[in-house]
Amino acid sequence: MRRSTILHSFYSAFRPLSTRTLPANCLRKSFSPITQSLRAPNAAPFSSSSRLLARKGKGGGQKKDNRITQIRYHLTHQKTPRPLRFSRLRALRHWTIHRAWQLFRAKQRTAEQLELERQYNSMREACEALRLMDERGMSGQEGGREVGRLYRIAMEKKGIWDNVPIEYARIQMDYPSREGWNHEWTR
Amino acid sequence: MNTGQRSARQIALKAGWPAKGPVCFSCQHQISRRTYAIAAAAAVETQTQANLSHILPVTSTSSQQAYQVRAGVVLSRPPLLTRDLHPFEKAFYLYQRRLNERLALPFTRYFYFKKGTPTDVEWKRKVKARLTPARDIGVYNAYGDEGWNDEVLVGAKEAETEWQVESLLKDAEAPITGIPGQESENGAGAPNGVEFDGEQTPGVSSEKGKVEAVERLMPRVTTADRKGDMKSLDRLLQRSLYLLVKNKEGRWTFPDDRLMGKENLHQAAERVLVQAGGLNMNTWVVGNAPIGYYSFDFPTRRPGLQKNAEELGEKVFFMKARIMAGQANLTENKLGLSDFKWLAKEEIQSAVTPRYWNAVRNMLAER
């Protein structure tokens, strides 16, 4: 397989470090306590079976899973991190596009904010008119007996989340359904 | 009228100050601490009297006068589709995707496709044509010599949403016959796949190039849009639609009716919905508070409901409601309505009177 031959050159680079790959004159090998403790059973295996039966491959020890090798290969690809090189005019154009996008988004956000404000003000004016209205619909002063009865009821928050239809949670799609609107719905 | 004010008033009463007046509690409190408290009290007294004299004419003469209090329903169908993108947005998104292509790692084909499998062959064929793993950015190779040339010209087809969707769908189409080496026994199964959605796909009739049809999407512009059917709820799917009705006077308004007895706005709104549009609408009245208000003075006073009462005008409080399914049916309506329409915001402006539009425009959603 060609892939294996390509990867083979990388293989030694990504093989996990083991004591066997360390050179003989490596200081870590001779002084590391871990290595020391590991070496003892290596030199004289106490019991035996598993190590002796271990397959001795070409690279020594168990071969890594090919997929893992490939993932590691591609994660440390030579072409990473990829440079994004712009010429001077191209960089200026990019900056212009970026600024234009920021302005565009700012305009959109302002428009949304203003719309919410308009709706809120409309609601507030309606509630204010309701608050100062008596039972005959005349706008009187606050504090009368029947003034603001509808307002007090409208401000009631009890049970407003009861029976919220599940269809209210429907999200917007990019394309309509095949059936279209259900005009024939009957109670 | 909240409890805070009420309790403040009680404290003021205990302190010996006039209960009603335009001076707020904190001011009264400060005034009472002053040494010239008597003079201040006098000032408050006169102000109170002035205030009372301002109210009194209204209360004395209003035994005869009244306003019609009405509850209106702004029944809306929410937008079903996402909004149309601005051309600048489309161009910018494509620009960003191509930049991403310049920044991304090379596609690891061996990781995703096993060598020699039909999917691998298929992948190679596709990538050869479009030079990039991304399916919807057009022909562009970020790794080649032309990698710098990532921008498209103004008005390029690649920026259009329809083109992108079409290219995605085309990519999903798998050839039925598979790779040339494995085709032989698939001949019988091929026609079934094509017949499934036969009339919507551009049929590729050559034996080898036969592709399995992918279901195409419904268009965003519906037949109701093309015909200009104002009564259909399938029109203008990316906008909110509002129910407008033609009332007894022949004016287009939101459905409304006078409040009956002691009912509140929410109950009245639910009643108006049923009396105007019939039972066969799945609706929900949102909340108890009105979202808008329209006040109109009649040119001549009209006799009221009670004896010796006359009505100066009408006050309509609009409640917000949503329709989930169904359609309005005016055949059995009890409000004297003759026609209905489902209109978007700017269409309402041309349908209603300017005065009504001014009262109503702010509560309607832009989209």
TrEMBL record, chain A:
GO biological process: mitochondrial translation
Compartments, record wording: Mitochondrion
Region (Disordered): 40-66
Signal peptide: none
Chain intervals with Polar residues compositional bias: 40-51
UniProt keywords, alphabetically: Mitochondrion, Ribonucleoprotein, Ribosomal protein, Transit peptide
Pfam families according to UniProt: MRP-L28
InterPro entries from the UniProt entry: Ribosomal_mL40, Ribosomal_mL40_fung
Entry's Gene Ontology molecular function annotations: structural constituent of ribosome
Keyword Ribosomal protein tagged: yes
Domain of life the protein comes from: Eukaryota
GO CC terms, sorted: mitochondrion; ribonucleoprotein complex; ribosome
Family per similarity comment: Belongs to the mitochondrion-specific ribosomal protein mL40 family.
UniProt name for this protein: Large ribosomal subunit protein mL40
Automatic annotation (TrEMBL), chain B:
Gene Ontology molecular functions: structural constituent of ribosome
Domain Large ribosomal subunit protein mL46 N-terminal: 67-225
Compartments (UniProt record): Mitochondrion
Pfam families: MRP-L46
Chain positions covered by the region annotation Disordered: 178-210
Domain of life of the organism encoding this protein: Eukaryota
GO annotation, cellular component aspect: mitochondrial inner membrane; mitochondrial large ribosomal subunit
Keywords, alphabetical: Mitochondrion, Ribonucleoprotein, Ribosomal protein, Transit peptide
Family of this protein: Belongs to the mitochondrion-specific ribosomal protein mL46 family.
Protein name: Large ribosomal subunit protein mL46
Classification of source organism: Eukaryota, Fungi, Dikarya, Ascomycota, Pezizomycotina
